[in-house]
Amino acid sequence: MSFLSLGLAPELATAASLQAWLAPTPIQSAVVPLVLRGADVRACAQTGSGKTGAFALPLLQRWQEQGERVLVLVPTRELAMQVADTFVQLASALSRKPKVRAVYGGASVNAQMQDLRGVVDVLVATPGRLLDLIGKNAVRAATFSTLVLDEADRLLDLGFSAELAAILDLLPAHRQSLLFSATFPPAVNLLAQGLLREPACIEIASAPETRPQIRQRAINVDTARRTALLLQLLADAGDARALVFAASKQGCEQLARELSAAGAPAAPFHGELSQGRRNQVLDGFKAGKLRVLVATDLAGRGIDIDGLPLVVNYDLPRSPVDYTHRIGRTARAGLSGTAISLIGTGCEAHFRLIENRLSMRVPREQIAGFEPVAVPLAVANTGGVKGARMSKKDKLRAAAAAAAESDDPGNGQ
Ligand code: AMP
């Protein structure tokens, strides 16, 4: 299968090959011909599957041939920048270039207003900022005849449903709409029903457990010794860069400080950093000046770094969806990668629940010198796992373990 055989014009096939995309990914093979035909599409796709190319390539062609302007709604600033960047990169091979802009909160609205003067062909936006700009007459929603909702589940998770409804009202009724989402809980299905006309539905199986290129590991360790173990794992990984997830902003800050002090240059990456600082951190990480990025779920969500070999769950994610998204930051586009979950004191039951929900099992490991000595919570503590009820003694142990955890600022679980 080649990009040309999907119906893409030679210029766009060249654009893909200039990105070193040798052949279409499965989602691209499925979605590109549908979008070129003008169909509405509902696609279940994980990040890392090549979904941005799946809509950017054919939409650039439709813009070129039919002047269809594109509005892409995304949940985060990072994703807005990345998606716009993909459009710009792909368009660099075109003889006529579209005007591509990204707008998002946390940056000067005036600068964005200036930047939007004239006709914008591809606008990538977070919903709140887009509405602000529409309110200031800096964007005319009616000029966009194509709408893409990217990471629709996350858009709803972040509470953007009212903004989405307001934006949908302002778009032309006659338009092409595409919806991409990693998961389809009822709220996303409802959104899709209201948005899409007779959509083609595409599902590409790439749940983490079916992506063999991600090696998943789970290590039992005392909560208080996770940082020391992490340092050892980083040392074992040689020069590899790592994305480490912590549960809270404070946890990110503290862990990044500790890692840096121990000789692993690290920076926190969370929602309370200014946009400028986030860009700076991301650039430093991409350039290899920083070895470790310590991120919260929300901030880490949009991070797209080629060749990122290692993701570590320092704090476990709250939900299976977050687990899937976190580990999906590695092993992107066919490369392999490792995702390590540190299972601190009392967190075994929580990780077991994540495994159950994802129908998978990750073998538990202990690392020599880091064997847990604190008493873990009994597995029987979870409602969903078969076993005896907790004894009074277990409950006391659990309370002690929980107290030990809450003393650890890195842990917000
Ligand atoms: P996405 O799923 O859009 O976040 O893309 C994930 C990564 O896959 C990005 O780094 C893209 O550059 C890369 N990618 C997209 N399409 C292809 C392809 N056909 N071949 C190889 N890499 C690709």
Give a description of the structure.
With 413 residues, this protein is an alpha/beta fold. The protein folds into 2 domains: 4-207, Rossmann fold, CATH 3.40.50; 212-404, P-loop containing nucleotide triphosphate hydrolases (Rossmann fold, 3-Layer(aba) Sandwich). It has helices spanning 10-18, 26-36, 51-66, 77-91, 109-115, 127-135, 152-157, 161-170, 186-195, 226-236, 249-261, 275-286, 297-300, 320-327, 348-357, 392-406, and strands at 41-44, 70-73, 100-103, 122-125, 146-149, 176-181, 200-203, 214-220, 242-245, 266-269, 292-295, 310-313, 337-343, 364-365. Strands 3-4-2-5-6-1-7 form a 7-stranded parallel beta sheet, with helices on both faces. Helix 3 (51-66) packs across helix 4 (77-91) and helix 6 (127-135) packs across helix 8. The longest helix has 16 residues, at 51-66. The protein binds adenosine monophosphate. The site of adenosine monophosphate has 16 residues, from helix 3.
Chart the SSEs and their pairings.
Elements: H1 10-18, H2 26-36, E1 41-44, H3 51-66, E2 70-73, H4 77-91, E3 100-103, H5 109-115, E4 122-125, H6 127-135, E5 146-149, H7 152-157, H8 161-170, E6 176-181, H9 186-195, E7 200-203, E8 214-220, H10 226-236, E9 242-245, H11 249-261, E10 266-269, H12 275-286, E11 292-295, H13 297-300, E12 310-313, H14 320-327, E13 337-343, H15 348-357, E14 364-365, H16 392-406
Parallel strand pairs: 1-6, 1-7, 2-4, 2-5, 3-4, 5-6, 8-13, 8-14, 9-11, 9-12, 10-11, 12-13
Helix pairs in contact: 2-3, 3-4, 6-8
Bound molecules: adenosine monophosphate.
Adenosine monophosphate (AMP) binds near residues 21, 28, 48, 52 and 304.
